[in-house]
Design brief:
Strand order of the largest sheet: 6-10-11-9-8-7
Largest sheet: 6 strands, mixed
Strand content: 15-25%
Structural class: alpha/beta
CATH topology of the largest domain: Aminoglycoside 3'-phosphotransferase, Chain: A, domain 2
CATH architecture of the largest domain: Alpha-Beta Complex
Radius of gyration: 24 Å
Oligomer: single chain
Shape: elongated
Number of domains: 3
């Protein structure tokens, strides 16, 4: 089969579709057709859809280089078939052009739900694979691609992380498939083995301390404060808060010190998979570098605040709220290395203050909570945040027992 080239015009731009094969036998014809299309769209840079392209030879690659030179700027290739993407990657084209791979479509109909969190839900596909399906509002495609890279970076830094090997489409959403043989979330594991709750809480605290002592080269991962500002963006765009509240929110975020140590970003029992005696982290979409409080505020939000709501612990972590409450108490004492109840109480109060960075946004984007309820929740969280800010300002971190 030889090549076939077509074109569509929309929204002031144009897309070129290439299918079939471009090899040494017909690369000259393909080049002629492509330059003819460029001539009809002077001054415009095309997007090339390669979903139907089965093979391209070195002669075909040189044609694309000529197109790039003629346009005067890098081209974008979308829906690139897996075989052609591999050719691009091997030859270095992925360094020269913006290339996105064609995503495989999967269905989650009938698949068991094994975990959930603020970013999405985890389903088991079969005995060897799970898929994390992301909430679209807070997880653009670029963030999902970053998760793959974050998981890779974590793995090579000796952080126990599940490696993702396929980005997929799930209806109108995106997902990442992980190899996870016979694994369950830590929440489900603790629920099934209550006698191991204390040991698991200690192990989870020790693992988090290991993460917070693992250094990366700067810029390997994003600054954790950038991720927190994304939550502030969601809160601001909701229109439910006064501009002064958003300004204070951003001031608090910027006051958090920077460190080049690993931050998971959504650390709780639903994002740790247990396989035999091995623990593996999933959901690396918010992985970053920063201060430990950047992680602890999220852990507190899920394991303390969300878990205290009816059904919240079961939904997000797979264990009863009462069990998660006992787990948290052991976990936080181990992390801060203290049994001083008054110090723990004060530390939790400070973590609640920082957790509102995410809570202000979180109460605005539920697709099941009525608008009038959202308005009341938003007002309540805003009042609590501003009250805590009047007490702690931007120096609360200095009062935590790190």
């Amino acid at each position: 089969m030889t090549h076939k080239i077509s074109c569509t015009d929309e929204n002031g731009g144009f897309t070129i579709y290439i299918s079939g094969r471009i090899d040494s036998n017909d690369h000259a014809a393909a080049e002629s057709e492509l330059f003819e299309l460029l001539g009809r769209h002077k001054g415009q840079v095309p997007v090339l859809d390669l979903s139907g392209l089965e093979y391209i030879s070195s002669a075909g690659l040189r044609v694309l280089m000529k197109i790039r030179k003629a346009c005067g700027e890098p081209l974008e290739f979308i829906n690139t078939s897996p075989d052609v993407y591999d050719i691009f990657e091997t030859t270095g084209f992925t360094e020269l052009f913006k290339v996105s791979r064609k995503l495989r479509e999967i269905s989650i109909d009938g698949l068991p739900l094994i975990g959930a969190g603020a970013n999405g839900k985890v389903y088991r596909i079969d005995s060897e694979r799970i898929v994390k399906v992301y909430e679209p509002l807070t997880n653009p495609f670029e963030k999902i691609l970053r998760e793959k890279e974050s998981a890779r970076q974590a793995f090579i830094h000796d952080i126990p992380s599940a490696i993702s090997y396929d980005v997929v489409r799930v209806g109108g959403r995106y997902g990442i498939v992980y190899e996870m043989i016979d694994a369950v979330t830590l929440g489900h594991y603790v629920s099934q083995h209550p006698d191991e709750l204390s040991a698991c809480a200690v192990k989870m605290a020790d693992l988090l301390k290991k993460l917070h002592s693992t250094s990366f080269d700067e810029n390997t991962l994003p600054d954790a404060r950038v991720n927190l500002h994304l939550w502030a963006d969601v809160a601001e765009k909701s229109g439910r808060y006064q501009p002064d509240t958003i300004a204070v929110l951003r001031e608090v975020i910027d006051s958090i010190p920077y460190r080049n140590t690993f931050i998971h970003g959504d650390y709780h029992l639903g994002n740790i998979m247990v396989r035999d005696d091995e623990w593996l982290l999933i959901d690396m979409g918010d992985a970053s570098l920063g201060h430990p409080v950047d992680d602890l505020l999220g852990a507190y939000q899920i394991m303390r605040l969300v878990a205290s709501r009816p059904g919240g612990a079961e939904r997000y972590m797979g264990a009863p709220g009462e069990m998660i409450g006992r787990f948290w108490d052991i976990f936080i004492r181990r992390y801060f290395e203290t049994d001083d109840s008054s110090l723990i109480e004060k530390s939790e109060d400070i973590l609640r203050y920082y957790a509102m960075i995410r809570s202000l946004a979180g109460v605005t984007f539920s697709d099941v909570v009525p608008d009038d309820v959202k308005a009341k929740l938003s007002a309540k969280v805003q009042a609590a945040f501003l009250e805590d800010h009047s007490r702690y300002g931007t120096s609360a971190i200095s009062q935590l027992p790190f």
